[in-house]
Specification:
single chain; alpha+beta
């Protein structure tokens, strides 16, 4: 029934308080300008794609569901095409795509590909694959249309991602690549791109023999024969897009320190650099005339929307700063893209050739738009080894030497990600309450070049933990921060760092720590996690446990919990397959054995990301109460 919340018993799983009475205190008064309910209700339009006409846009909008929407760029508001699609994390979900004739949208739901009319109608399921459906290793995904109306899909077969061809009237799918003479056959086939004439498909291939390598391969749709166009040891070539005439492929290649924009000739394999700066180029998109590419240029947590001249490599900046994503050319020569920044909740925007910006979709609640946003200051500090660490520091109004603020250190997840100029409503909420908030880009983060990005290879939970401790030390040098009231909070890999930092700190800096669906034991998480987590967040950085057991043991804070001297708040989704909920169970069992102080909650409906409003609100209310109890 509309407006009637589900009973907590339907989504709260386990709940335990170790060494604590069951708290009833709500916490200090709510902040003057922000409400958790409004943040949880803020939607995220994302995963956009355009039809062949350059006028029909489809995208996913995250609210209580992650449904597919349509938008006609020539006029008219957004239209919802699906209902009831399970909420999915934006960093893992697939993109809906329009058929060549513009009449049908293909999308992924419940481990299968579905079709829904662009003009509206009933969705129908296309693929029927046998096997255990998983939330992360989708049975079918990444749908792409062939010109003949068939679909290319990614399927989970033989413990790897394979590209397959499926007829929309037939549930069976056949492998796209049927022969690859002279090539390593065992690996993952990723995001396919169909040539303009429909004869070839290009895709990045990641061999299991080198998880830090990605090469561009092409396959003949008719024969199934594949060949490699690019490839080098420990080098990643990705995001390939065909030139409009079909003669070449633009792609992003991390050949040196940065991901450059590259071009390779399909007939000869000859390469040239299209654009290279001290920044990463991402998500290239060709203009219809083939003379320019739109792309994202990112460095240090900020990104620009740029246009690159194909002939000369000249880079023109259309829009500066914030976080841009997925630029696509429209029929009129404008570019549509996603956008957000520290003061702007996620939007869809259209940027004209002269740089003027039009907001197409802005679903944030009015209270969020009206709330004052604190602009973070970009700062730098150095741990004991002298490495320069960059961070974003939010300072609450009223914080001064006479009235210093409590502070929270926030390491991001990933680990190969970064915290940037992005909308973070929950950080704004706690800053509005009076907390300082320091979001750091520890060693291993992106946006600083490949050398910095790989500094935590073979070194999880050691150097990056020292970066978190150095963040606390930096805060203690600020006169407007109360160095005796510091906490640390993170999610996923950030949770792992929060736990490791609290254990290593042994009560010298932090007064509490918060662990949101994170690891505690690298050996057991290797055995429990899904393929993406085990391979691409583990083995590619640490090697296999049989080869580097000491690295796994050294990076597992669960073995040193006797050092822990502060209370923990631990939360996990029971459907999590990236970091299995058994990681939190193992952590809590050891805390219980040692008589440590903790609060523990699980959510029966959630996976790796608390996406539904009720569990999300429950967690942040607990977080607020926990931080207020120990820091205010």
């Amino acid at each position: 029934m509309g407006g009637v919340p589900e009973p907590a018993s339907s989504w709260i799983g386990k709940e335990e308080f170790g060494g604590l009475p069951t708290p009833t205190r709500r916490g200090d008064p709510r902040p003057p300008n922000w409400r958790l309910e409004a943040i949880a209700a803020t939607e995220r339009p994302r995963s956009i794609s355009l039809g062949n006409d350059g006028r029909s846009l489809v995208y996913v909008d995250d609210r209580e569901t992650s449904d597919v929407w349509a938008l006609d760029l020539d006029g008219g508001g957004p239209r919802r095409l699906t209902t009831g699609r399970d909420p999915m994390p934006y960093w893992e979900d697939m993109t809906p795509v329009l058929s060549p004739d513009g009449g049908t949208v293909a999308y992924v739901d419940d481990g299968a590909v579905w079709l829904v009319p662009y003009g509206g109608g009933v969705a129908r399921r296309v693929t029927e694959f046998k096997g255990k459906p998983t939330r992360w290793g989708l049975e079918a995904g990444s749908p792409v249309w062939l010109d003949d109306g068939r679909l290319l899909v990614s399927v989970d077969r033989d413990d790897r991602n394979r590209l397959a061809v499926a007829d929309v009237e037939d549930a069976w799918a056949t492998s796209l690549v049927r022969s690859s003479p002279g090539l390593d056959p065992f690996g993952d086939e990723e995001h396919p791109a169909v040539s303009p004439d429909g004869r070839l498909v290009a895709f990045p291939f990641v061999p299991r023999s080198d998880l830090n390598r990605a090469e561009i391969r092409v396959v003949d749709v008719e024969t199934g024969g594949a060949r490699a166009l690019t490839g080098a040891e420990a080098t990643k070539d990705r995001e390939c897009v065909w030139t409009p005439d079909g003669s070449g492929l633009a792609f992003t290649g991390q050949r040196g320190e940065w991901s450059d924009l590259m071009l390779v000739a399909v007939s000869t394999g000859a390469e040239r650099v299209l654009a290279a700066e001290e920044a990463d180029f991402w998500e290239p998109s060709w203009s219809p005339d083939g003379e320019r590419l739109a792309a994202i240029r990112a460095r240090g947590g900020r990104s620009d929307l740029v246009v690159v001249a194909a002939a000369t490599g000249e880079v023109t900046t259309l829009a500066v700063g914030g976080s841009w994503g997925t630029p696509l050319w429209t029929a009129t020569g404008a570019i549509v893209a996603t956008y957000e920044d520290h003061a702007t909740a996620p939007q869809l925007r259209r940027v004209q050739p002269d740089g003027s910006v039009e907001i197409l979709v802005d679903p944030a609640p009015a209270s969020v738009r009206a709330a004052p946003h604190v602009r973070p200051e970009e700062i730098e500090f150095r741990p004991s080894d002298g490495l320069e660490i960059q961070a974003f520091l939010y300072r609450p109004s009223g914080a001064s030497e006479e009235s210093p603020a409590a502070a929270v250190v926030y390491p991001h997840g990933g680990p190969t990600e970064s915290y940037g100029d992005e909308w973070d409503g929950y950080a704004q909420y706690f800053v509005d309450k009076g907390y300082a908030w320091l979001a750091l880009n520890y060693r291993g983060s992106t946006g600083r070049g490949k050398t910095f990005e790989r500094l935590n290879f073979g070194d999880w939970g050691v150097g990056d933990v020292q970066d978190c401790l150095a963040a606390a030390d930096f805060l203690r040098t600020l006169g407007w921060v109360d160095g005796g009231r510091l906490g640390i909070f993170g999610a996923s890999y950030g949770s792992y760092l929060a736990l490791g930092s609290a254990v290593e700190d042994a009560g010298r800096r932090f007064r509490c720590a918060v662990c949101k669906y994170g690891d505690c034991d690298l050996l057991t998480t290797w055995a429990q996690g899904d393929r993406g987590g085990v391979l691409y967040c583990g083995e590619n950085m640490l090697g296999r446990p049989s080869q580097n057991r000491d690295v796994y043991l050294r990076g597992s804070p669960v073995h040193r919990l006797d050092r822990l001297a502060v209370p923990l708040l631990i939360a996990h989704g029971e459907l999590d397959e990236r970091v299995h909920p058994k990681q939190s169970e193992e952590l809590v069992a050891e805390l219980r054995r040692l008589g440590k102080t903790f609060e523990y909650v699980t959510y029966a409906t959630e996976a790796h990301g608390f996406l539904r409003a009720a569990p999300q609100l429950d967690f942040y209310r607990r977080l607020e109460r926990f931080l207020d109890w120990y820091l205010l």
